[in-house]
Known about the structure:
- By secondary structure, the protein is mostly beta strands.
- It has strands at 6-13, 15-18, 25-28, 33-34, 41-53, 58-67, 74-83, 90-101, 105-113, 116-125.
- 0% of the residues lie in helices and 65% in strands.
Amino acid sequence: MQGKPQLLAWICCDGVHIDPSTGKHTLLGIFSNIKARKFPVTHPRMFWFLSLTDVAPGKHQLKISMGRGMEETRPLVQREFESTSPVQRINLINEVQRLTFREGGEYSILIEVDEETILLTSIQVS
Length: 126
């Protein structure tokens, strides 16, 4: 029986470049918090880069939700992806535009694959 997918990397950054000749990913402007001069603040554009393995062959659903508390989370990313083998490393690039934070504080980020929690983390906004 196949276990749940394993998260190898979760990176929040300003951009992701994929070299057309090698397929290598370059992550630009990695950050773990957001600073604002005043609230509400809208972050113009960020990328959430995930690398997964141990994903059973077939189609799967990725869902990333965010909120001030777990009861307030709302989905920001919902997309399908495919795995060809459990040993495959799957890199998923998720662009999030115009994300508004009404106030400062800690925001929870919940990452799920096929409705199973892969990671619960947070980002600080101040």
